[in-house]
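I hope you will forgive my troubling you with a question about protein structure. The record follows directly beneath this note:
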Amino acid sequence: MKQPRAWQRMLSGRRLDLLDPTPMDIEIEDIAHGLAFVARWNGQTRGDYPYSVAEHSLLVLEIFRRFFPKSKRADHLTALLHDAPEYVIGDMISPVKSAVGPGYGELDERILAAVHIRFGLPAKTTATLKKQIKQADKISAWMEAVQIAGFSEVEANKLFGRVDQKLINGLTVQLREPRVVRSEYVAVFTDLLNRSTI
């Protein structure tokens, strides 16, 4: 019996096998393009543009840098790429992930490992770094919930934990055209990749 197709063709021409991803089929331009068009919150946000995973990733990186100022370049790359698999598997809200079960998480981990290897990072993120990035991710989610997704601060506190307003002073959730966000994502990635220190 013929196996169903498990690969997706990218604009770069690469064909990424979702079940057995290889690092050589991964390009940052494909990731940035995909993430710039994937909407968080299933598109249920205020504004004239969807709030993209690329925009979210840039915010998570900024929060991560602010909270962990002694972190290394590789940590920053890992933070920027934390949701990279969503360029091919989309962004599922947490209730849907729970309903789908562990299959989504396993697929996400396989693709993320290939992304990490492609860009010279360890396939597996250490538990400490993963926890730090998750902390930044939750703060970003809190900001998004309150600023653009219609949640009250009380609701957001219950779902994501309280956020010290002093720690996010000056940070805002941005809604920009996909081409602008895509371009910034690639530029930030390239800057991090080209830095000489790890």
Observations:
- The CA atoms of residues 68 and 125 lie 16 Å apart.
- The beta strands are 7-9, 15-17.
